[in-house]
Amino acid sequence: MHSPAAAEAEVARQMQICNACRYCEGYCAVFPAMTRRLEFGKADVHYLANLCHNCGACLHACQYAPPHEFAVNVPQAMAKLRLQTYAEYAWPRALGTLYQRNGLTLALALAGGLTLFLLLAVVLKGTLWQVLPAGSFYQVFPHNLMVAMFAPIFLFALFALALGVRRFWQEVSPGDRAQDAPGAAVAEATRDALRLKYLDGGHGLGCNEADDEFTLWRRRFHHFTFYGFLLCFAATSVATLYHYAFGWTAPYAVNSLPVLLGSAGGIGLLVGPAGLLWLNLGRHPLHGDAAQKPMDRGFLALLLLASASGLALLAWRDSAAMTLLLALHLGVVMALFLTLPYGKFAHGVYRSAALLKWAIEKRQPSRLQLGSE
Amino acid sequence: MTASNYDVLVIGGGNAALCAALSAREAGASVLLLESAPREWRGGNSQHTRNLRCMHDTPQDVLTDAYPEEEYWQDLNKVTGGVTDEALARLVIRDSSHCRDWMRRHGVRFQPSLSGTLQLSRTNAFFMGGGKALVNAYYRSAETLGVQIRYQAPVDRLELRDGRFRAAYVGSERIEAKTCVVASGGFESNRDWMRAAWGQINGEWVADNFLIRGTRFNMGVLLKFLIENGADAIGDPTQSHSVAIDARAPLYDGGICTRVDSVSLGVVVNKQAARFYDEGEEFWPKRYAIWGRLISYQPGQIAYSVIDAKAIGRFMPPVFPPLEAQSLPQLARQLGLDESALARTVRDYNAACRVGTFDHAVLDDCHTEGLSPPKSHWARPIDTPPFYAYPLRPGITFTYLGVKVDAQAAVHFSGKPSANLFAAGEIMAGNVLGKGYTAGVGMTIGTAFGRIAGTQAAAAALLGQQRAA
Q: Which chain A residues are closer than 8 Å to B132 by Cβ?
């Protein structure tokens, strides 16, 4: 294991080379942000590492990439440091180590989640295989029990991520308050995050996967994943509203809003993670950080399991398999929520913060007076 | 052993070779391209380039204002001191006004001028990602179109008969083709040839201390072969484009980032800690290309740009950190210079400075009086620690020696154009750029003549085919 300082020093070394070259300025925000600096201290490299989307364009375009002795591989250096920043800013700090062995973390969370709900079902109902009135989920797990289990975990995840990103912001933008950001900057950062602007390569052709060819597939699959996730979340929110505000309890009809939203989201969460996983398996070996693959793939697998089990539950909610499928689905979702603040999901939060910092920074005049070259 | 039956053989793997291969393939010819480098080093000097100098009469996508043909020609005429061929130069200039759509079709993308290069926003279209991205796009397009590509295939010699191309040899392998485009670059990577070309200056083999900014694969094998076998040569064999770069740069492929832009903000001293040229004569972009030669004439071919704390943050950041010291004697020790000599040089310079209103963005009124050589602008005493130094050496960009071609890119033998041997890129750039340089013109020549050579080679091959049928 390298020391934390080594990953920072490597990014600083490469940025010094890039800053003297600048050919990649058109690809993304990292390089224009770099040109506003002459030195690359801890705050700078942490910021730039999280601004990098690991698209790969600058690696294939780099005249200093290996086998050149300068050995410039910006996406890889950034990825290594990025993972380290997640661990460093994680709250509580001690749990940051979960990022380092994320494959194991996810596996344990999944095993734990599944065991919990399978056992719970057996304890509560005495069996995993029984015919119950169509989709009567709450006969297996009472509604209040589910709320009592999931709400604290979800709220904890939000809280932990918020504290983590707050620490990140204080480090990379000391003295700046995110809430003082100009509205236009917030709007731009939001737009850039929601559209995944920096996966378009700057020319609209997309990013690199297996080789120097540009493709928009990562961007598309990520959209499927992210908006699928949002739709699922919306389905749950609507259902919660139905439950508490209107007293309408599950199961909901196939053409009801929660089911429609959840089905669409579930399909997005099937297609997106499957596509991302496929791209991840074919990625160029020099892209990114090999040590991070378990985290990336583990998270995608968990999302796939969540959507697949959710859709299966919808399909067989009238059958004897419902109890088993429900336990499986809840176990997977529990694992997902438990690991939200200590896995791949965090990238979206830190990336958005970095995009906001860039949107603020680019509106300020540069302090450098380098003259024209 | 004989392989072949291609219509067009392209020898080389950089921009001009790729433009030739793509154009020949588009014209319907079967094409084999031989790149001497392995795949990861493909592209020759093109992988280090960044833009194309473009004629345009109105603003275009990434180009501001206008850069009409006449102005472009005047610029070229000026930088070459008239060592050019107006007809060929205008051919290149006109091609630059419309070649970019073709480039885009083959995957090249453009971006506005990079930060720190505002002075080029009118005249130069920058490649998104730089020259290596352009090279990648061309190879990808060539593969898609069915151009056969071989790496690590250095051509040693050609088989010529009466000025006609018959075959090329890669080692003992004989490769036939109906026509051939030679786009294999200059000879700057060939240390022995460079040594012989520059010879001795003050008893030193100066080229031994040169760094090569570009590829290690431009050995000039075919350039030498062609000239020795009757092709007409053009350009001064002893000349090369030489700039001052960081002495710590790698021997090859240091590229753009090894430049040092601090010269005009301080003084430059040689091994004896003596100044030798006006550091503030002109804006640095207009002077960096003479400093390589200036340093070539200094003992050991080394010099040091010395600045103080006032200069930090006022020039493009160099790739290597400067040597830093709290005092000048300390700095002299780090540089291996005589302490008292450096102290004297700086003392004399400081005393001669007439500081007015310092402004690095204009030719300001800060200058020296009674100092030889003078410093005409931006002269401020070097008196504020810490003191910094960047070691400088000559960095060779390219050589000027080439083969004579005509408007069809045909190689000339004793004044007569070959019917089936064409040349493009650095190996013939001397026809247009006999001397000097201006940003982006090398890529413009390579693109224009690559396209011409490819088209002509395909036409000659297909015409021969018709005759045979």
A: 60-63
Portion 81-110 of B in contact with A at CB < 8 A: 109
ipTM associated with this complex: 0.95
pTM of the model: 0.95
Which tokens in the block code for residue A97?
């180590």
Instruction: Name the 3-class secondary structure at A316.
Output: coil
Q: Which domains occur in chain B, in start order?
A: 2-185+220-237+400-468 (3.50.50.60), 243-395 (3.90.700.10)
**Alpha-carbon gap, residue A18 to A15, rounded angstroms:** 5
Q: Retrieve residue A189's tokens.
A: 């950062």
- Model pLDDT for residues A313-345, shown as the tens digit of each residue: 999 988 999 999 999 999 999 999 999 999 999
Q: What span, in angstroms and rounded, lies between the C-alpha atoms of A100 and A294?
A: 10
Write down the domain spans for chain A: 101-346
**Residue B284: closest CA among chain A residues belongs to which residue?**
A373
Q: Which residue has the tokens 């960009």?
A: B397
The DSSP call for residue B240 is E
* Owner of token pair 């040089």: B345
- B 20-49: CB under 8 A from A: 40-41, 47-48
User: Cβ A67–B40 below 8 Å, yes or no?
Assistant: yes
Distance, CA of B400 to CA of B373 (rounded, Å)? 30
3-state secondary structure of A139: helix
Q: What percent of chain B is modeled with pLDDT above 90?
A: 91
- From the list A355, A350, A225, A335, the residue with the least C-alpha distance to A279 is A225
Interface test with chain A among B50, B52, B128, B248, by most A beta carbons within 10 Å:
B128
pLDDT digits 0-9 by tens, A198-221: 999 999 999 999 999 999 999 999
Distance from CA of A282 to the nearest CA of B (A): 19
Look up residue A249 and give its DSSP letter.
Answer: P
- B439 to chain A, any CB pair closer than 8 A? The answer is no
Report d(CA B135, CA B14) in Å as an integer. 7
Contact check, Cβ <8 Å, A20/B257: yes
Question: What are the angstrom distances between the C-alpha of B321 and each of A143, A372, B317?
Answer: 64, 20, 9
Return residues 198-217 of A near B (CB < 8 Å): 202-203, 205, 212-213
